[in-house]
Design goal:
Keywords: ATP-binding, Nucleotide-binding, Transport. By secondary structure, this protein is of the alpha/beta class. The chain has helices spanning 49-57, 96-103, 112-125, 141-154, 171-188, 199-205, 239-255; strands spanning 11-20, 23-33, 38-42, 64-69, 72-73, 81-84, 159-163, 191-195, 208-212, 219-224. Helix 2 packs across helix 3 (112-125), helix 3 packs across helix 4 and helix 6 packs across helix 7.
């Protein structure tokens, strides 16, 4: 396991156990994620990656163990954490802009005009200028995920949690979204925790990659990614990238 740990973690999980009846999904998970750090979680199917993200999002409770943001316990969903799922989960009866504005209704001190302005700003950030009045059904899968990303960023979360956000997209759209994610992170530099089955995606985006063991999921190893930033998908053509990808694949397949 990597010897590097954040000096003052933004996110901390200690001794996390999660059981569903007689099935133990996670057992003894410990991890720390630093402020503005980009960390990915990879592992074999069924190792508990998405379950761990749901616990951190506050959508489920651990059977035992502690989860903290800035030293305060996670007791449920919060606006300090934005979540992007594999499917965009947009409200089909609202326009693109209204979907983003809906996420801003809980922001104090924002007028309706302020919400509209901020929604347009974040839609512009993800390349959706001109689509503000479109309905989700009129958008491609990749465009819908852009809306979901804009929505989650719009209220200024300190941590962005992403659960296979590009897993349902075709290969070309997925690569476009990976490039967009790199660009957005370079601009905002918030803490990101990404669950993915795409090892290349994990390596090209992340500062560290957490490799989970098969169920019950544990942190098997943490791999540092020393590839210089800013990165693009062209980074995948380097020997360093290929070596890291092969190493992580070997860890996953060796544990199966």
């Amino acid at each position: 396991m990597s010897a590097q740990h954040p000096a003052s973690p933004k996110l901390r999980a200690a001794g996390i156990v999660k059981r569903f009846g007689s099935v133990t999904a996670l057992e003894g998970v410990d991890l720390e994620v630093g402020t503005n750090e980009f960390v990915s979680i990879v592992g074999a199917s069924g190792c508990g990656k998405s379950t761990l993200l749901s616990l951190i999002a506050g959508l489920e409770e651990p059977t035992s163990g502690t989860l903290e943001v800035d030293g305060a316990p996670i007791t449920g969903p919060g606006r300090d954490r934005g979540v992007v799922f594999q499917h965009a989960t947009l409200m089909p009866w609202l326009t693109v802009q209204q979907n983003v504005e809906f996420a801003l209704r809980g922001e104090r001190g924002l007028s309706r005009a302020d919400r509209a302005d901020r929604a347009r700003d974040f839609l512009g950030l993800v390349g959706l200028d001109g689509f503000e009045r479109a309905r989700p059904v009129e958008l491609s899968g990749g465009m819908q995920q852009r809306v979901a990303l804009a929505r989650s960023l719009s209220y200024g979360p300190e941590i962005l949690l992403m659960d296979e956000p590009f897993g349902a997209l075709d290969a070309l759209t997925r690569r476009t979204m990976q490039e967009l994610l790199l660009e957005v992170w370079e601009r905002h530099r918030i803490t990101v925790l990404l669950v993915t089955h795409d090892i290349g995606e994990a390596v090209v985006t992340s500062d560290r990659v957490i490799v989970m063991s098969p169920r019950p999921g544990r942190v098997q190893q943490i791999v540092d990614v020393p590839i210089e930033r800013p990165r693009t998908l062209a980074s995948e053509r380097t020997v360093e990238f290929q070596d890291l990808q092969d190493r992580i694949l070997g860890l996953i397949h060796g544990a199966e």
